[in-house]
Amino acid sequence: MRRENELAEWVVRSEVDIETGGEDESREHLLSIPATEEKVTHAKISIQGLDRFSDEGVRILMSVSLQIGAGQIVGIIGPSGSGKSTILRAINRLWEPPSGTIFVDGEDITKQSVVSVRRRCGMLFQTPTLFDGTVAENIRYGPSLAGEKLTDKRVEELLKAADLDPTFGSKSVIGLSVGQAQRVALARTLANEPEILLLDEPTSALDPVSTKHIEESVLDLNRNRGLTVVFVSHSLEQVRRLADVVCLVANGEVLEVLKPSDLANATHPVVREYMAAAS
Ligand SMILES: Nc1ncnc2c1ncn2[C@@H]1O[C@H](COP(=O)(O)OP(=O)(O)OP(=O)(O)O)[C@@H](O)[C@H]1O
């Protein structure tokens, strides 16, 4: 039901459209992210004309423009090598986007410290990387860099938020299943109290049960704490389960932005081909 209430639309045009004044309909990429919920109040993440070139001069991203509402869950899908992870990593400054292309709450992320950007925008990868030690030590690590020591109670809360048993903290990370390790990685990310979660194929290495745990945590964090979530996935089913809006990327371009229920109505030929192959 929460996906039904459309309050507003942010309309974003690619730079091509701006240059042509939108007169050439064949080049029109009208990208609308429907603000699907009452909780959406403003654009949390604004990407404006983001380009990336490889060292060899090959264009990886082509003038990507997107606005993501506060509290939305946005799924990014598209063929391998299309630039999905590159978009996600730019928001976290794992590569340095040009200044004036990515804003969080209206602030240019390149004008802030990398540490503060990464605290605000927590990221989870396909495969969790934990350091040897206990689960609690891993969870405490991020805040400890800022001189903060998390209490046992806080560690337990974080474990619960990641759908893990609160007693898990004393366990060694050696011997955890990949699914458990991914949930510890989520708890570790949450320890920094991010406002945004960036998830790069977070369940592609997990079995269906572990996938369900992660998905439930993400939905809970979004619903109850208002976290804005941007995730990359190759699973249309996952996108349908989680996303408020879906962003379809191919060849470094955002081609369409749709509600999951409208995926079958995608019109761009490249997107239709991808959808047919992925269904
Ligand atoms: N640092 C880099 N230097 C050169 N090329 C890069 C770099 N990072 C990514 N690329 C290239 O950019 C393109 C987009 O990569 P990216 O990982 O963003 O795609 P993706 O859509 O996430 O793919 P997948 O679904 O396979 O994970 C690919 O062709 C990749 O080889």
Characterize the structure shown:
The protein has 279 residues and is of the alpha/beta class. It has a single domain, classed as P-loop containing nucleotide triphosphate hydrolases (Rossmann fold, 3-Layer(aba) Sandwich). Helix content is 32%, strand content 25%. It has helices spanning 15-20, 84-91, 114-120, 135-145, 152-161, 178-190, 208-225, 236-242, 269-278; strands at residues 8-13, 30-35, 43-53, 59-69, 73-77, 102-104, 107-108, 121-124, 196-200, 228-232, 245-250, 253-258. A 6-stranded mixed β-sheet has the order 8-9-10-5-11-12, with helices on both faces. Strands 4-3-6-7 form a 4-stranded antiparallel β-sheet, covered by helices on one side. The chain has a two-stranded antiparallel ribbon with strand order 1-2. α7 (208-225) links the parallel β9 (196-200) and β10 (228-232). Residues 1-32 have low confidence and may be disordered. Residues 54, 60, 78, 80-86 line the site of adenosine-5'-triphosphate. Adenosine-5'-triphosphate (ATP) binds at residues 54, 60, 78, 80-86. InterPro entries: AAA+_ATPase, ABC_transporter-like_ATP-bd, ABC_transporter-like_CS, P-loop_NTPase, PstB-like. Belongs to the ABC transporter superfamily. ABCI family. This is ABC transporter domain-containing protein.
